[in-house]
Amino acid sequence: MRFFHSPHIKWLGLLAAVSLLSGCAGTGDSSAPQSGRIRITSEPAGAIAYADGAELGATPLAIAPGNHFRSGFVGFSYRYVGKLSIKKPGCETWSTEVNDAILSKDIHARLKCDPNYQPAAAAPSPGTPAGTATGDQTIERLERIESLRKKGLISEEEYKQLRGRILEKL
Length: 170
What we know:
Layout: H1 7-24, E1 38-43, E2 48-51, E3 54-58, E4 61-63, H2 65-68, E5 70-74, E6 77-87, E7 94-98, E8 107-110, H3 135-150, H4 156-168
Parallel strand pairs: 1-8
Antiparallel strand pairs: 1-4, 2-3, 2-6, 5-6, 6-7
Helix pairs in contact: 3-4
């Protein structure tokens, strides 16, 4: 039994206890969303948000960071890491490297936009009535809402309503 009274064993026990206790301690950040989801907004709204290059959807939107950003050990801590980018035609791309601190609260991006930017109007193809989307635009819109539904960003009911509106314009 003399082995357990060794000073080295006592220090190892103390270090193990400190490690366990520090791993259980919270960050004390009361601003973290309770649901595990954060809102991403932009000014102007309607910009497209990307997590590490994968489209998340148009702002404003709510995401669960664990579903979109990779996580792993950084030193001795397990953390989210990645890059969040927000893009809108006529505006400079806004981006930031993300970590647990950034993803613990809602994110708002103020985009720097060209006040003289004029989006190129898509010319309707011959035979397409004015005010309707071309075939390519319709397909793009349908694919976008399908992607939002698969990511859980819109409900099945919202998906059906949006799909119906898009198809009505054909």
